[in-house]
# Entry
Amino acid sequence: MTRTSSLLLVCEQCHSQIRIPALSHRQRAICPVCNHTLLSQRNQASEKLLALSLSALIFLLLSLPFNFLTFKASGQKHSIDLPSGITILIEHDYLSLAIVTSLATVLLPGIVILGFIVLSLAQLKQQKPFYLPRLFAIVKALVPWSMAEIFLVGTLVSLIKITELADVAIGLSFYAFVGFSALTALCISQFDTTRYAMWLADGEPPAPKPLCEKQARRSIQRTWALLLTACILYIPANILPIMYTEFFGQETPNTIIGGVISLWESGSYPVALIILLASVIVPVAKIVILAWLNYSVQRQKTTSRKTRIRYYRITEAIGRWSMIDVFVVAVLVALIQMGNTMSIFPGQAALAFCAVVFVTMVAAMTFDSRLIWQQWKQLS
# Structure
């Protein structure tokens, strides 16, 4: 797109009105109050987004038909591709785990990529069909739930977990999925929602969301309710087994902490630290930070505003990475099904932990960061 003339934007995170001058290529406009990126300028942004999105779609299609992983142990061999892995979970009555895995790793990222293609094509052709605003809203809403890169890390962790038990071979689809994950991340980084919203509104800046005392009170109450739910779910997620390992007829339960300890004792220190960070420290830290933020806005604290907004952004960025352990279980269950010789089954904690991650993500979305900067009881 061409350079933007001077315009007045309202920061979505602190509700400050900022006058932005014309931007040059690779320049960003940052809110001087809360340091939130308001707008960015990239020459040929639509062309680049279209090229990246089409490439990501090709890699996604290539990751589906070919072999993803092959597991060899005790003279037996088992290979899976991505669709058959989901099918195995369904056939063994793990429908919930199959739905979560397929949505977060293939379906939702695929919808986001298709949305990018349609939006960028419409912008290049300067066409605005009636469905475009709704599509734009859907893509924005689905981006946080697109977890292809997290599934990829979970797959790598699961491979490290089982390399001592058997031989694992990586198939062509795995490499295609690596390309899909990387390109999807690039597409998301290239997509400037503010600039696209301005294009849809014929150059007008996005209208600021209304903020009043009733909405502020509702935001605080919903955040407390979601955090309480997350705390309740976190107890069974850590006490109950997240998966069961059956080896020659002997079944062994594995909790999250137990898995971290076994990885540490086996010498897999980096993987143990990753699981400890993603599955134990991050969920607890996110609940504590959101509770602190919600309490501070409820009490209308006016101190440490920049510190609080910084912690809020951290919780938004890292919360979804706690899904690594859930994806590790999904990969291991789909891959290792060899009867009494060696099999892995998900435990009750898998869905409870998945619910913790989802509930805390929704809590972060429900929390209104503008309340850090405004006294909500003084709003009209």
Summary: The chain has 13 helices and ten strands. The mean pLDDT is 88.
